[in-house]
Amino acid sequence: MIAKLRIAVIGAGYWGPNLARNFDASPDWDLVAVCDRDRERAQLVADRHGGVRIVTALPELLAADDIDAVAIATPAATHHEIACAALAAGKHVMVEKPLADTSERGEDMVRTAAAAGLILMADHTYCYTPAVLKMRELVSEGALGDILFVDSVRVNLGLIQPDVDVFWDLAPHDLSIMDFVLPGGLRPLSVTAHGADPLGAGKSCVGYLILPLEGGAIAHVHVNWLSPTKIRQMIIGGTRRTLIWDDLNPQQRISVYDRGVDLNLQALHDDNRTASTVSYRLGDTWSPALPEREALGAMAAEFAACIRERRAPITDGESGLRVLAVLEAASRSLAGSAAAESLAPKKRELIGEAL
User: Fold this and answer.
1) 159 and 202 in contact (C-beta within 8 Å)?
2) pLDDT per residue over 113-154, tens digit each?
3) Could you point out which of 66, 194, 235, 337 has its C-alpha 20 to 30 Å from the C-alpha of 155?
């Protein structure tokens, strides 16, 4: 039998308990410790998992020789310091989204991991769901044809975060899915962000991102903390078919429509050209059968496999950097009164790198 890997979860707030539960349940991992400066909060998580070790000081945790990896679930501003310290201590690292609070710090994390020969993995959880994995498969095999547009909506009556705006809180999910699904990753030519703060919270609570893509396609992301209804939906339109993902519909998370607009028919005479260059295709609709399994469990399995096989995760540090580049461009666009923010050549090249 393959020996289990040993992991500690750093951060016992909102996301840490979910990570601890999945690593504890995984056949690939032994949950060794929970680390948080708040001992009582760490104790609550540890008690759910057989009373695993509680650590309140990060240096003490990283000095332990019975830990192979750490999973970081702390505020984004702390990711760089914690991850680099863990890598320096010889630990593999998984980091919740976003990878860091700046691209510069994220790039340093990626370089540090590469130099140490260690795994750095971005916890882009949705990329491990059966639905998004199926979306990637359908796009990759050409079932949709060439991509024309992506339209994503993520809204709910949500918690207004104290440290980030709605773009940095919610959009990483949609951006990471696009990066995972689109051929070659997410490569916007520019980023335009429009945000609104109707509550006077001092940050955008409602936001829209417009991302022109190569080849004439376009992506649009709508995020909102103020909606009374919860929507988690993405539409990917192609030249052959259109896919709709509805994460809140467990009976039919993915629907594929053989419906669309064809521009192939050309009129012989100019008088009829306007009427005949557009035709509508009305075909079948189908929904693939999907297994039901928790995405974090699949993510834990991928993290272990990458360590054992010494390969990059499907959501590696580079994918985290591509998402960060778009978020930073969105912030610059907001600061410039929503003018289109072209990505610097270095960023565009980074975004275009394959997984």
Assistant:
1) no
2) 999 999 999 999 999 999 999 999 999 999 999 999 999 999
3) 337
